[in-house]
Amino acid sequence: MKILIIYKSYHRMNTEKIAKAIAEAAGATAVKVKDAHIEDLTNYDLIGFGSGIYAGKPHRSIFTFIEKMTPTDKKAFIFSTSGEPKEEYHRLLREKLTAKGYHIVGEFQCPGQAGFLGFTFTSKGHPDEKDLQNAQAFAKGLLSA
Ligand SMILES: Cc1cc2nc3c(=O)[nH]c(=O)nc-3n(C[C@H](O)[C@H](O)[C@H](O)COP(=O)(O)O)c2cc1C
Fold first, then answer.
1. What is the pLDDT of residue 121?
2. Taking the model in full, what pTM does it have?
């Protein structure tokens, strides 16, 4: 099974750490959304979409990419890091992917430290070693999806 991960991470590169952990454990290719090409999707069986959560949602660049995708019946998974993970943060992404015909086979959420101007607000030290292990366990589960 060929797996592609498309992600957006910019605040503290928390989501990139998770994307890389999943990629390593699942033997997947991880690319930043700005480097991802719609036409490459046909080469993969399972596509993962990951983002930090910004004002309650994944980054808009992920949605812009999804808008350009052609409908399919492929499998997809979703992951995110956020200051305080909440189930609802994935709702819009889930809806948009489902509308394109994707079957969501897994979701993973992880705390991600947020900090501004040297202040740390939430989830200090995350993702930590345990979070990365959880991401890898999630990735292994995907292989049997
Ligand atoms: C502009 C901005 C808005 C954020 N909004 C939320 C939010 O609504 N809920 C939340 O739990 N965390 C929020 N956070 C925290 C981020 O989701 C968290 O730090 C995440 O791990 C950042 O991912 P990244 O380092 O991959 O960019 C926000 C962070 C930034 C910079």
1. 75
2. 0.97
How many angstroms is it from 56 CA to the middle of ligand 1?
Answer: 8
Residues of the chain with pLDDT under 70: 117-120, 145
Residue 7's contacts (CB-CB under 8 Å, 6 or more residues apart) are: 15, 16, 19, 30, 31, 32, 33, 48, 49, 50, 51
- Domains in the chain, please, with CATH? 3-143 (3.40.50.360)
CB 14 less than 6 A from any atom of ligand 1 = yes
Please report, as a single letter, which amino acid is at residue 16: E
Q: Establish whether residue 63 lines the binding site of ligand 1, counting it when its CB lies within 6 angstroms of any ligand atom.
A: no
In the chain, alpha helices (H) = 14-26, 60-68, 91-99, 129-143
Instruction: State whether the beta carbon of 111 lies less than 6 angstroms from ligand 1.
Output: no
